[in-house]
Specification:
The complex is a heterodimer. By secondary structure, chain A is of the alpha+beta class. Chain A is built from 14 helices and ten strands. Chain B is mostly helical. Chain B has a two-stranded antiparallel sheet with strand order 1-2. Chain B starts with a helix and ends with a helix. The chains are: A alpha+beta, B mainly alpha. Chains A and B meet through helix 1, helix 2, helix 5, helix 12 and helix 13 of A and helix 1, helix 3, strand 1, strand 2 and helix 8 of B.
Chain lengths: 494, 221
């Protein structure tokens, strides 16, 4: 294995050790002595590596412009970022008739980053998920679209009423015949009922997600409609199995499936045992950056019923989580996950906003968490969004449906501060603590931690005002800690 | 052979773990530097992933697709989960060659779940494979001449006149770390140490090995 020089190498090991230590120590010691040009090179070098995933070549025009002093490293970084910008057709720009490979890389890198920020990062184990029909990336597309579609507000990540779909480039001609998993033959999607002769199994051919190099994102206007699906209930007819339920990433079919704790049960949530609380847990984390418990014991005192037959109603320790989850889950109480067949590999499970033609009885008085209600899933999708903000404020707002929830989320500061935290950590490698530090039980933060926390909060509040992810990213790249993490300890200016 | 390398690997790893200026491309909350000083403000390592590390080595050693070193590098750095990085199952596309379906853009996927990235983290295995990759390039029949030609235009093997000099050591270092430089005392030390190696090519291999495995190269900032 080793070449002819190994004997030499073996004897030289102590020397190499010495040199590594000497080089490393010297470079570290000289870090403060870098020239302004070196700082600009370092900024470009780092951002290019993060945005494109490759080391920038010194022959790159941007490097040359920085070397010539005609462009700052910061401006060069933003030039790289904007290579991922989506045009009016939702695609990146072309260079000499080809889609820009750097722009494609930028989109892919940020897709990977956004995907990594979700509470549930992989849905491979979700029952009945069809990866060729539903794009596992689709929740992350909402953050990507907000970042790279010029003029798109960040709040649309959670307010967008339409789903999103990828444009991908492949040299394949014709339609796909193989699955994205292992290039196996595609399953034949089916509808019908094996137990009912009048509803025999028939095939259907929905539009599949694209595969290949990512070159854009667009609103999903594909209608995979099941016009012939008449088994079980007439109200299933005409359903688009690809339809978003609204509220940006929160209503994507993929997100609902990835966070579904009610599989095999459709439309019979009762507000207690059966409720979409896993989705609510993830919603709190993915949109607001709040982990459970998100309430203090004193916030749930009025909900405690020591004699309740519902276990989590009996103590405040359980209710500190259940209050937030169960109240928020009301926003999707009308959703159900239906199936196109009663079994088999070709079965498609999809989410619908179910409206039952029968009229439920008058709503129960809502004095607290629902106590068990067989009509729960058909009542208006009322919810409460209840959590302690990072600054200790008790957020306690009510509304109806996913659209109503999206509005309430977008009105908080937490939605934007959570975004700032994720981008800050991605770019600087520094994790900010956004716990409710006014909680009497909270652990106190060090001065350095407080500086970082305040920095991130400041970035988040600014994002709420300008709504621009490129502006947020530019602000972070300009911070001293982008190139020197230790600068974050003191919160020094730029 | 392996046991003789072990102390070297250990020191290299220790050095890499204590870096403040490395790059983490993906969120890795559990990856926190084991230093009380740094933990106090939530600082984490930033390491280059498989894509970055491979491209940096390709850039320095002029690795082109047709030479065997390219495949060695891909196997050691890119196709191994050790270096971490993004994965995109949907990035792989099916194309039909003849009557057989084949994967196009197969480098987009890395064998984990539908949407998971591979963790970018420091490890003994990562360092070991970095050392092997550097060796493969430094001893590569194509790559050693190519990198030497960048340091000494017109370089030919085995010439005493091509021994390291202070200026050449600086030129060589700049190939690896474009945004930093070595101060004079370090250059002098490198000169002293390289002078103890009689063969000019071996002296350069020793220098290149030190640079290739130095944290400043693969942290890049």
């Amino acid at each position: 294995m080793f070449r002819s020089g190994f004997d030499f190498l073996k004897s030289a090991i102590p020397m190499v050790l010495t040199v590594l230590v000497v080089i490393h120590g010297a470079v570290q010691a000289h870090a403060a002595a870098v020239t302004p040009t070196q700082t600009e090179f370092r900024r470009l070098n780092k951002c290019y590596g993060q945005f494109v995933g490759l080391r920038i070549k010194t022959s790159d025009p941007l490097w040359q412009q920085v070397a010539a002093g005609t462009k700052s490293g910061l401006d060069a970084c933003m030039d790289v970022f904007h290579r991922g910008d989506l045009g009016s057709d939702g695609r990146i720009s072309q260079v000499a008739g080809e889609y820009d490979s750097v722009g494609s890389q930028v989109l892919s890198r940020f897709l990977e980053f956004y995907r990594s920020t979700f509470y549930v990062t992989d849905i491979a184990t979700s029952t009945g998920f069809q990866p060729d029909l539903y794009d596992a990336n689709s929740p992350a597309f909402h953050f990507l679209y907000s970042a790279f579609k010029p003029g798109e507000s960040y709040s649309n990540s959670v307010k967008r009423t339409q789903g999103l779909r990828a444009y991908r480039l492949s040299s394949r001609t014709g339609s796909r015949t193989r699955s994205v998993i292992g290039l196996k033959a595609l399953v034949q999607y089916q509808q019908g009922n094996t137990t009912d002769g009048a509803q025999a199994i028939v095939n259907f051919n929905p539009t599949l997600v694209e595969t290949g190099r990512l070159i854009g994102i667009r609103p999903d206007e594909v209608s995979n409609i099941e016009t012939a699906m008449q088994w079980k209930r007439a109200s299933f007819q005409g359903r688009n199995v690809s339809a978003s339920m609204g509220a940006g990433f929160l209503g994507e079919q993929t997100y609902l499936t990835a966070n579904n704790n009610q599989d095999g049960v459709w439309a019979n949530n009762n507000g207690t045992i059966r409720i979409f609380r896993v989705w609510a847990r993830s919603m709190l984390s993915d949109s607001l950056g709040r982990s459970l418990p998100a309430l203090r014991a004193s916030d749930v005192t009025s909900e405690v019923e020591a004699s309740s037959d519902i276990p989590w109603r009996q103590s405040s320790s359980c209710l500190r989580c259940h209050d937030s989850m169960d109240n928020a889950a009301g926003a999707i109480r009308n959703l159900a996950r239906l199936r196109t067949t009663d079994g088999g590999e070709g079965q498609v499970r999809f989410w619908v906003n179910f409206v039952n033609p029968s009229q439920p009885p008058a709503p129960l008085p809502r004095t607290g968490l629902d106590k068990g209600d067989s009509w729960y899933y058909q009542r208006p999708a009322d919810f409460k969004l209840r959590f302690r903000s990072y600054d200790g404020t008790l957020v306690d707002v009510a509304g109806t449906g996913l659209g109503g929830l999206a509005e309430k989320i977008a009105a908080t500061n937490d939605f934007y501060v959570a975004a700032a935290k994720r981008h800050y950590e991605f770019l600087t490698g520094i994790a900010a603590n956004l716990d409710d530090i006014t909680d009497p039980d909270a652990v106190s933060l060090s001065p350095a931690e407080l500086n970082i926390r305040n920095r991130v909060i400041e970035l988040g509040i600014a994002l709420k005002g300008h709504q621009s992810i490129p502006t947020l990213i530019r602000s972070i790249l300009a911070l001293p800690e982008y190139l020197d993490q230790s600068a974050a300890k003191t919160g020094g200016g730029n | 052979m392996r046991s003789s390398l072990f102390p070297f690997l250990l020191l290299s790893l220790t050095s890499a773990c204590n870096l403040a200026r490395t790059s983490l491309f993906f969120k890795e909350p559990e990856l926190v530097i084991q230093s009380e000083k740094l933990e106090t403000f939530g600082q984490s390592l930033q390491l280059g992933d498989r894509s970055y590390v491979e491209s940096a080595m390709k850039d320095v050693f002029e690795v082109t697709p047709e030479i065997p070193e390219a495949k060695q590098l891909e196997d050691l750095i890119y196709n191994d989960g050790t270096f971490g990085g993004g994965c995109d199952l949907y990035g792989v596309s099916e194309v039909v060659v003849g009557t057989t379906a084949q994967a196009e853009f197969k480098r987009a996927f890395c064998g984990v779940g539908l949407t998971e990235n591979q963790s970018v983290r420091s490890s003994a295995q990562r360092m070991a494979q970095t050392v092997k990759a550097c060796d493969a390039l430094i001893y590569g029949a194509n790559t050693f001449p190519r990198v030497m030609a960048k340091i000494i235009p017109g370089w030919t093997p085995g010439m005493t006149a091509n021994r390291p000099t202070s200026e050449r050591l600086r030129v060589a270092y700049a190939l690896f770390d474009r945004t930093g430089s070595l101060p004079d005392p370090v250059i002098e030390k490198l000169m002293d140490l390289s002078n103890s190696v009689s063969d000019a090519d071996e002296a350069w291999r020793w220098v290149l090995k030190a640079y290739c495995e130095s944290p400043e190269f693969l942290q890049a900032w």
